[in-house]
Structure formats: structure tokens, C-alpha cells
Amino acid sequence: MFDRIAAWAYVALTLSVFLPGLSFAQAAESAPVWHPREFRFRTGERAPGGAPLTEADLEPHNPWLNWRLSARLRSPRGRVLEVPGFYAGNGNGNGAGGVWKVRFAPDEPGLWSLTPTFEYASFPINVEPLGVAGERSVPLQPRVFNVSERSPSAPGFLRSGQLEYVGEHYLKFRDGSFFLKGGTDSPENFFGYAGFDDPFDSGGQPPSISFLHEYPTHRADWNPGDPDWSANGTPNAGRGIIGALNYLSAQGVNSIYFLPNNLGGDGRDTFPFLSPAGGYVNNTHWDVSRMEQWNTTLEHATRKGILVQFVLAEEESGSVNWLSTVFGPERKLFFKNLVAMFGHNPALKFNFCEENSADPGDEFSVAELHAFADYLAMWDAYGHPLTVHTTADTLELYNQVLTTNSSRWLNITSLQLHGDYGEQVEAARRLSFLNGGEPIVVDEDEQGSPSEGLADDNADSRRKEVLYDVYLSGGNLEWYFGLHSLPVGGDVRTEDFRTREEMWTYMRYARQLLSRFPFWEMEPDDGLVSGEKISSLYGGAEVFAKRGSFYIVYYPRALSTGALDLRHVPLGQTLSGAWFNPRAGRTEGPTLSVPTGAFFPVPPPPREPTEDWVFVVRPPV
Fold first, then answer.
1. How far is CA 534 from CA 389, 459, 531, 612, in A?
2. Domain end among 516, 537, 571
3. I need a labelling partner for 129 at 20 to 30 A (CA). Which of 194, 410, 461, 475 fits?
């Protein structure tokens, strides 16, 4: 009787009849679902005269444009996926060699097969659809690999699986859990890091200040066994940024926002290219070693349970037009390489532009955004969410996109708001009627003016004005830091994430509270509370409810708590109520019996009625 490995070997030998070149070693490898797999293909391709190909070679021998690797993967249940490959130098971080790679995160246990297609053309075939044939095909060996069952003890998102839009107001992991985002929107140049190979600050904001992140205090947050690397002759170069991710994860922060190319924008210190000088040639040659370091960092974010939001342009005209004013090889290569190199991470969000106006002629047009979405989705076998960031306090861009969008690519927002947070989040949820009735996921990714944002001394007011307003209106959050100087740091120059630790604590408490409720089934329902004391600064009560069973009521000041309308709940059904302290993250006072079928006078909090409190109601446990 075959044991498991022998069974795989038998299947592999059988498949080898149809997949010439298959080896038993390839078939016997195994890792759980969602764990990244990397396949290297030594192609034998060389530059003219027999010299090794390099990351800097020009057309018609530019390895980034003139060769195209694609992998057709067949799952154990017979699904077929097309995954793009990318040029990888010698395969070990050196930019000279004939190695291409495919990265993939399988979602089914069992035996998978991979059939590569590798083509050359004298034109930029790599950015063309697969239906466009090359001038020469290069045979490569197929692969077969085993995938084991999901590991409940796997770290971070490797345990949860792909994060997807599923027609609800929240994204959902394949393990069945819903995602409530609580992240950092700053610094937007998180990867403008001195510890990557060949870093360069080409001069941005603030003016006349050359600056690259080092995250020096976070080097102490690096742990033995974490990834690390040498860069620019310096050992242990990765510890600052890896330690920063460790710290954020430990604080419960589960998303980061960054620009993979900010040339022409504010920071001007983050780019994937060999040179930041711009133009067609520079923009179509990427830095192999730096991309390996980026991948190491992003895979670590996955293991720490941190979603990565790629923001693909800034609103400044220099950034919008950096990759040409037409949608050609430069921008197409940018989109495709990001998917090919990093798309295997299960929790990503692609955001086409920061602060994209709805006005004609500003930033990207609706037609351009549709073209971008169609092109990126063509390469993305995982269907990562796509969005575009708004200018402040307006939904007009989304109205335009959704009313002209036949493919319905926009099902998640990236809002910039300066006030009325709860009302505007609720208005964004109502965009669902423009989305064919499908619910919109509402991400609020920037709040407050550049002079404010989230600083080191305003967490108390931001908790009352933003945190609970957004969460209890059915939204998700990332925090924008404003333009503060060091040592506090702001949207471009933050070095120490501990400067915002007070808010990380409050946000962690809020997410822990909501995780005790079926928040994905709840709706904003502020009208259920009446007669409460209205704060002149923070407004009245926020209510998030699943009528008949679950209610979360936030009072920015609990001096007078009014009444909760439970007339819709059958008379005689009893619920339980308790006070939650959002400053301390704990339930305080006794559990109360909450009668139904009438208005329930909410009792005063156990102490400090001038502060904010949360009253929670649910069926008795």
C-alpha cells in the first residue's frame, strides 16, 4: 500500500509521460497552501556575442521587454491559472544572467502542474497580452509540485489565505474570516529606505533636505530568525525596516500604504528602476537586487499579518506623467512586474493614484483608470482589490467610475476625508446602488489636513472624531500623519512608529471589540439612539447594529446617554448590555439586563461621564 509520498511519486511518474522533463524531486516537494512557491528557469539566453544578459541591456535585448515568461498552472481540481514571470538576473540577486522566475501561492492541496511558455521578440512582447505571439519560442521544462493542507499554525496571512472581495462590505479571507483594517497610511515613502541596494533621494519634500528612512529605533525590534541582508557593503541592512514591520504587527496594525514609485511626486526616493533619471530607457530597466529585497520585505509583511496597499502614482503632474503620458510599455511593465514579483502575497490592494481628481484633465481620466484596471487584472490571477484614492470630501470620482464601468472593477474605496467622517463613510457605503447593487468596501485612508493628521499628541481627539465614527459607520481605517517635522515625523519623514503608539493602542482596542461581534453583518444605524447629549466637537452617538441581536453604541461624551430604540425586537426577548471603556480596552461595571419591545433608557457609565464610552448590547451568553 502506498504511503503519501509514494503515491505522489506514482502520480508524478504517470504525469511524466505527458510532461517530459519532470523529475521526482520536483514532484516530491511540499508546502502548505498559501505559502509562496518560487520557480527558477535557467533559460540559456544570452546577449549578442555570447555575453550574459544583464538588467541594463537595451532593446532588442532588453530582458525586461524582449522576453516573456508565462506559467500555466493546473490545480488538483483542474482549474487553470496563468501567472506571469519576470527577469531575475542570475536568480540570486545579481543583475547578470539568464534566469527568469515565477512566484505563486497555491490555494488547493494536492498535486499541481506548471507549464512554462517562454518567448522572444524584437518588440516589447513582455507587456503584450498572451495572444500576441513571439518571434521565437524557447522550450523550458514543466514542473510538478505537491501542496499540503492549510497549516492552522502558519504565521499571519499564510494561515488565513487569499483576501478577496466577496460581495460584502468587508473583504474576506479564504479561511472564512472577515478583515477589519486598521493601518498606517504614512509614511507614503515607506520603501524609501537606506537599507535597500542603491538607494537615492532625488530631492522632494521638504525642499532642500536629502532624506532616506533608516528606522533606527526599530532595529531593536528585529528578532533572530527574521530576514536580513547586506546592501551597499553594509551588513544587517534589513533590520530597520523588518523591525518596523514587527513593531507594527505587535501593535495590531494590519496594513501599510506606500508608493513603489514616487519620482516626480513628494519624496522622490522610492523607485524600482536602475536609475531615477526618468525616460523610456530608465523606466524599462529594473534593479534586480533591490527587487529581491523588496520581495523579502513584503513576504515578511504577509507573515506578520500586514496588508500592503500599493499606491501607483501621486497627484502631482510629474508623478502622473513619469511613466509617459500614454499608456505604453513603461506603465504596462510597471503594473505587470508588480503583479509578477509580489502578487503572490495574499493581502494586497492596488491603488491607481493618490488624490485623483474627478475634474477633466487632472490626474488620470475615468477612461484611463478603466484601461489600467483591465490591464492589471489581465495579469493578476488572484483578483486583488483595485481602487483609486480621492481628493478630499468628495465621492464624485467614484460616481463617474461606477456609472461608466462595465467591468465593475471598483468595489473598494480609498477615501480622503477632512471631517464628517461617519456621514461620509455611510455615503460611500450607499455607492453600492451604483455598483449593480453589490456592496462597496469602504476604506478611509487619509484624514485631516496636512497640518494635522495623526500626530503624537492628538490621539484622544482623533479617537473621538475619527476612529469610532469610521468603524461604527461600517468603514476601515489607515492613519495619515500630516507633515510634521522630526522627531515626530510626518507623511514623508517618519522614522519611529512609536510616536503614534497611543493611537495604535486605541485602534487595537476598537478592533478587538468589533471582533467579538459579527461586524460584517452589522449596519450603521444612528437613529436608534435619541435624547443623548450632543458634543459640540464630536457630535452625537454612533450606532452599529444587527437589529434584533447586536448593538454597539459609541458616545463621544456620556454625560446624558438617552435611549436605545428596541421596539423592533419582540417584547419579552431579553438582551444583555455592558459598558466598554475605549481608553482602557476593557468592559467596566456590571452586565445589565436589557428589556426589548420599547425604548431602553441607557444607564450612565460607571465613571467619568465627560469621557467617551461604548455601550454594547447582545444576546445573553
1. 32, 21, 9, 12
2. 516
3. 410
Pair 553, 602: CB distance under 8 Å: yes
pTM (predicted TM-score): 0.95
**How far out from the chain centre does Cα 68 lie?**
27
- pLDDT tens-place string over residues 350-379: 999 999 999 988 899 999 999 999 999 999
Residue 199, preceding bond cis, omega within 30 degrees? no
Buried b (16+ CB within 10 A) or exposed e, 368-388: bbbebbebbbbbbbbebbbbb
Number of helical (H) and strand (E) elements in the chain, helices listed first: 14, 28
Which amino acid makes up residue 615? F
Q: Are 497 and 543 members of one domain?
A: no
**Residues 190, 143: one domain?**
no
pLDDT digits over 533-588, tens only?
998 899 999 999 999 999 999 999 999 999 999 999 999 898 999 999 999 999 99
Secondary structure of 85-102 in the HEC alphabet?
CEECCCCCCCCECCEEEE
Q: How many whole angstroms separate alpha carbon 237 and alpha carbon 212?
A: 13
Task: Compute the distance between CA of residue 492 and CA of residue 353 in angstroms, rounded to an integer.
Answer: 17
74 in the same domain as 37: yes
198-242 pLDDT, tens digit per residue, is 999 988 766 666 789 999 999 999 999 999 999 999 999 999 999
For residues 376 and 500, state if they share a domain: yes
Domain shared by 400 and 534, yes or no: no
